Structure formats: structure tokens, C-alpha cells
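Final report, section 2: Outcomes. Of the targets proposed, Phosphonate ABC transporter ATP-binding protein is the one most frequently requested by collaborating groups, and we therefore present its record in full.
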Amino acid sequence: MLAIKGVSRRFGGKTAVADVNLEIAPGAFIGVIGRSGAGKSTLLRMLNRLVDPSEGTISFDGVDVTALRGQALRDWRARCAMIFQQFNLIGRLDVLTNVLMGRLNKVSTASAVLQLWGLEDKAMALAALEQFDIANLAGQRADSLSGGQQQRVAIARALVQEPSIILADEPIASLDPRNTKVVMDALLRINKHFGITVICNLHSLDLARGYCDRLIGMSAGRVVFDGAPAALTADAARDLYGLEAGEVMDADADVKWAGQARPASAAA
Ligand SMILES: Nc1ncnc2c1ncn2[C@@H]1O[C@H](COP(=O)(O)OP(=O)(O)OP(=O)(O)O)[C@@H](O)[C@H]1O
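The predicted structure is given below as C-alpha cells.
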């Protein structure tokens, strides 16, 4: 169980996240939604300690992760893998080596520096690529891939970290609709097939409704909605997004997703 208690983060005089209290059960697929600047990225980045809270605590299975230092902090970051909008791959390296980077925390420092990967690690990395139908790209340079392929490599890299939680910060923001679906399906597969908790910041309300089983709506740093997608009425969504509502809401979204938890093609 991930427990966030009284967490706030200020940058100078600006409060990015204000007094957030949440409990997140293992195996959830959470969508964090809200307009630009609502505090979604800051919240996610605090969970794996890329940013430290100004106040409050974050604990996982009873361990205070806000107090971790050194190796214990590195171990937590490995358990709490992050996926970014811009993929964060090493472009000049091949796909397999990029995925193996997810094993860095599991091998000795000497092996990591010399990039001496064991057969088991390589097999694991290849298996992860196979999960997302891109094992055939293992030998290609990462920067020769399309955005959707690169994001699947990043998801495979996260998977070989053997994480308990995957944090995805706007993972589809730079992708076209076809690749958006491929990447969201990959995250759904990670969640349903491997039971890994996924917490995903999403700009599109339609996607959040379609893929997530719980939505956390943020506004001006505060959590203003927390519930099942079906509980987020069109009026509540308009309150959450204000002037951006038209941009993020499909006019027929309520109808489209009514009684349909997630896209059938995405089933694990
Ligand atoms: N490192 C920083 N220094 C100063 N201000 C920051 C920093 N990071 C975030 N902020 C501010 O905190 C607020 C919340 O930002 P955050 O990026 O968490 O929002 P967001 O909901 O993820 O927005 P977006 O959807 O545009 O990414 C914004 O006003 C932002 O300008």
C-alpha cells in the first residue's frame, strides 16, 4: 500500500502540491488528471523522490520513503519506475542495451560500469521487449525508432526493474493516436498481466476514463476528485478543467465509455 499523508510541495512562494492525502492499493491503474499546472507532475516526481516534499510523508508498505537515503533511496527508485513524456532513452545505444539499463540497480558497480550483462539479464530484457512486440528491434539504435516504439522500449526498461509501481508522466503526450493506443495498451498489460500498480498523468480525460480504474483529479495543487471514472460527471469534469474542458473532453465521452470499463483490444 502506498500512503501519501499531508504532502505539500512549494517552489519559492508557489505551492505546486497542497496537503495531498491518498492511499493507493497494490494493482491499481490510477489516472491523475487536471489542467496544466495543477501539480500532477510534481506529485508523481515526489513519489519516486525526484522532488522532495516540503511537508508530509510518503510511505510504502509501512516504510517512510521520504526518509530514504543512499542505496535505500536508489532501491526505492528502482521499485518505483518512472516513464517520461520524452522517453529518456540513450539514442546512440541499441534497444537491448537501453532496456538493460533498467537492471543497473541489480548488478555490481563494476558490471554496470563495464556494461557486462549476464545472460539472465539479457534474456529478461529480450522477454520484456517480446511482451510489447518489439524484440525484433533489439539490435537497432534507439534514436532510429518511432515515438511509439521508443516509449515501448522505455516501458520494457521499466519492467526489467521489477518494480512494484510504474509512474508514467504524460507518457503519450508526444504520440499520434495509433501509438497512443499501443502505449496505453502496453501500460494496461503491465498492470493487468504483472499486477504492477500504474499511476499515470494524463491530459486526455477520454483516455483516463477508458483505461484507468480510479481517477485522481487535481486543481491548484489539491485533490478535488478521487473516485471511479463513472463517478466523474461532465459537470465535475468541467469544474476540474475550466476553460480547457473542451480540449480534453470528447463530447460523447460519457456515452462512449458508459458501461465499458476499458477497450476490449487492450485486455491482458
Ligand atoms: N522546479 C520548479 N520550480 C518552480 N516552479 C515549479 C517547478 N516545478 C513545478 N513548478 C510549478 O508548480 C506548479 C505545478 O506544476 P506541475 O508541473 O506539477 O503541474 P502539472 O499539472 O504536471 O502541469 P502540466 O500538465 O502542464 O505538466 C506549476 O505552477 C509549475 O509552474
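Residues 210 and 257 are 6 Å apart (CA to CA).
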